[in-house]
Design goal:
Serine Threonine Protein Phosphatase 5, Tetratricopeptide repeat, Methylamine Dehydrogenase, Chain H, TFIID_NTD2, 4-stranded antiparallel beta sheet, Transcription initiation factor TFIID subunit 5
């Protein structure tokens, strides 16, 4: 057992029995480097001995001298260096020493935020620079000649190995070797890594690596590969026979191989899932339970027709309507088995005005059009003409009465879409004259002199990238390049609060479906959860490796989805801030997210022109909709979830059959365990219609309460 071993080793060291100590170490495989014969001896208690014995060049384990093993308690080594120091949780075959993070004295070394120089210094020990091409081409030859079933899986190694070997050459100042290595092999990488390779090709000197965030990420986060056990054994045997330590070191040091038992995956299955900055998600990452069901709606009386207004004076009428109310409220009587507990997170109380709004909503819902392949929605397009200020964000209120545009000239403009003009509240002096008991007090407090179709809100000092109306239409959020999120009152059309938390541009913000909470995401790679009455964020969701480009609340408000330029989508738990899902598969930054109304599914759109569909409960990709030829900036499900609308920079709105896309999904235990997803070859049979605009990229989509589809964008003349 480990404690005893440590004690024995210490005793041997104190008695100066070096040889026995080394033999025991080798037997116990306590150092990853022992197998290769380079034993890093830990300083004895005698003063003046260097902490780490020199490692012969070329043999180097990248661990031993990484940043010096500091004599910790009792002179035991304490590895410093990259943050991948949590023990590697692979089911390891017996004879293999994968010691990424030694367990020290029974406790695991805690992962720390990386210090740049420590992170990069892991590239210190390196093999003969002239042999790198030979190593790589040897592996390439081996993989290309292996059986078809293994080839697709092992080919995933090409890209991460290529990057790490190139960076290692650059870091150790073998510039010409690095250049020739890059030129020889960069053409073999998958097409979806082109943008990353462009960044990589500009890093030609050690100095360039220090400031480059992308590369630092690549260094510190382990690249995850999902490989079947058979393919992994094949690779391991090959590398050990060839004694190809250089590649084996990189595999151990920088990659996380998620091994599964079962059939290897096909090229097509792998292609669907890979492409993000850090490889695929570990299967463990999508195992947590997610309460994706909807919260029970509060119950209150719902008058069903417009005639009730007259009937209110006679006692009889509303009473007759009472029993009917149950038929409307009944569908939410039963608690959804997948719903979170009602009080899992504190939600604001319903005000009387909210209840009235819900009543209106239910009346509208009764007149809602049932959509389907035979009954497609009409689309009403709001084109922003002469928007020379540059339209950068749009939102529409839930009841479709107002539309807001965020512009590059830092203004926020709110329009009324109905004949009802926008009015501000009267001044304090005028308000004091009003009879507060009168029935139409809410009308009287409005100042008719201020009525207009458009209100312009000034306050930001940079382009406005995101806007969001509160569900009760009293507030509006806007976020900007200036690093702030502002809360505006739609009663007075003034700014109430500026939330400062992000240090860089904020790309998106959105109100919770219940109001009060909102989320923002920005260039600083984190999303923040706020409450309107707190200056500081309540939660900070950190984990993305690049900008958080879009944010969305789950319909039950317990979860938040974030899409990022690292090409992944994450789902976060609002209660504890944990990341409960990581979805990989997009080949470009993600710019749109939409939850299905029942809370079970998520649709995501990116610069790769694909819409991917995810089953949140099982953590699986369940569909891929191909058709757009440019970035997808808008996604929205119809009110009952039968149709998914997508809007893109290719000037089209496309409608997809969501019912068919989500029916008879294969989510058996095997699929969930291994991620063997089988997407239909062709998504064209799900496409219900494509609607072109003349020359207007689609930036926003919104289904009205009766299922009319509203779209918005700014006309572009080029």
């Amino acid at each position: 057992d480990r404690q005893t071993l440590m004690a024995v080793l210490q005793f041997l060291r104190r008695s100066n029995l070096r040889e026995s100590e080394e033999i025991l170490r080798r037997e116990a495989r306590l150092l990853g480097d022992d197998l290769r014969g380079s034993v890093a001896t830990v300083a004895s208690s005698s003063p003046g001995v260097a902490a780490v014995a020199a490692v012969p060049p070329g043999k180097g384990g990248a661990r031993a001298g990484a940043a010096g093993s500091l004599p910790g308690a009792g002179g035991r080594p304490r590895p410093a260096g990259p943050r991948g120091l949590g023990g590697l949780c692979l089911p390891q075959p017996r004879g293999l020493s994968v010691m990424l993070g030694h367990k020290v004295g029974g406790g695991i070394v805690v992962e720390d935020q990386p210090d740049v120089s420590a992170v990069l210094s892991a590239y210190n020990q390196q093999g003969d620079p002239t042999l790198y091409e030979e190593y790589y081409s040897g592996l390439k030859h081996f993989i290309e000649c292996s059986l078809d079933c293994h080839r697709a899986e092992l080919s995933q190694l090409f890209y991460p190995l290529f990057v790490h070997m190139y960076l290692e050459l650059v870091y150790n100042q073998h510039e010409s070797e690095a250049k020739s290595f890059f030129e020889r092999f960069h053409g073999d990488q998958e097409c979806y890594y082109q943008d990353d390779l462009r960044v990589l090709s500009s890093l030609t000197k050690k100095e360039h690596m220090k400031g480059n965030e992308t590369m630092l990420d690549f260094r510190t986060s382990k690249f995850v590969l999902r490989i079947s056990r058979d393919s992994y054994q094949l690779l391991k045997r090959h590398l050990q026979e060839k004694q190809n330590n250089q590649i084996w070191n990189i595999v151990q040091e920088h990659l996380y191989i998620d091994i599964f038992d079962g059939m290897p995956r096909s090229k097509q299955q792998i292609d669907a899932m890979v492409g993000s900055l850090a490889g695929e998600a570990k299967r463990e990452a999508n195992k947590a339970k997610v309460f994706f069901g909807l919260l029970k709606e509060p119950e209150f009386d719902v008058p069903l027709d417009d005639e009730d207004e007259e009937g209110e004076n006679e006692e009889g009428k509303p009473k007759k309507k009472k029993p009917k109310k149950d038929s409307v409220g009944s569908k939410s009587k039963k608690q959804d088995p997948n719903a979170p507990p009602q009080n899992r997170i504190p939600l604001p109380e319903l005000k009387d005005s909210d209840k009235l709004d819900k009543v209106m909503n239910m009346k509208e819902a009764a007149r809602r059009v049932r959509l389907g392949p035979e009954c497609l929605p009409s689309i009403c397009f709001y084109t922003f003409l002469n928007a020379y200020q540059g339209l950068t964000a749009v939102d529409i209120t839930d009841d479709s009465s107002m539309i807001v545009g965020g512009f590059a000239d830092s203004t926020v403009r709110v329009w009324s879409v109905t004949p009802k003009k926008l009015r501000s509240v009267k001044t304090a002096a005028d308000l004091s004259l009003i009879d507060k008991e009168s029935d139409d007090v809410l009308e009287r407090i409005m100042d008719e002199k201020t009525a207009s179709e458009l209100k312009i809100l000034y306050g930001h000092s940079g382009p406005v990238y995101g806007t969001s109306f509160s569900p009760d239409r009293n507030y509006l959020l806007s976020c900007s390049e200036d690093g702030t999120v502002r809360l505006w009152s739609l009663q007075t059309f003034t700014c109430l609060v500026g939330y400062k938390g992000h240090n860089y541009p904020v790309w998106d913000t959105q109100f919770s479906p219940y109001g009060y909470y909102f989320v923002s995401g920005g260039h600083d790679r984190v999303a923040r959860l706020w409450a309107t009455d707190h200056y500081q964020p309540l939660r900070i969701f950190a984990g993305h490796l690049a900008d958080v480009t879009c944010t969305r609340f789950h319909p039950n408000s317990n979860y938040i989805a974030t899409g990022s330029a690292d090409r992944t989508v994450r789902l976060w738990d609002v209660l504890n801030g944990n990341c409960v899902r990581i979805f990989t598969g997009h080949k470009g930054p993600i710019h749109s997210l939409a939850f299905s109304p029942n809370g079970r599914f998520l649709a995501t759109g990116a610069t790769d022109g694909r819409v991917l569909l995810w089953d949140i409960g099982h953590g699986l990709m369940v569909g891929e909709l191909k058709g757009h030829t440019d970035t997808i900036y808008a996604l929205r499900f119809s009110r009952d979830g039968e149709i998914l609308a997508s809007g893109s920079m290719d000037n089209t709105v496309r409608l997809w059959d969501a019912v068919k896309a989500f029916e008879d999904l294969e989510t058996d235990d095997f699929t969930t365990a291994t991620g063997h997803i089988n997407l239909p070859e062709n998504s064209q049979d799900l496409l219900l219609g494509t609607y072109m605009t003349k020359s207007t990229p689609v930036v926003h989509l919104h289904f009205t309460r009766r299922n009319l589809l509203l779209a918005a964008g700014a006309y572009s003349s080029q």
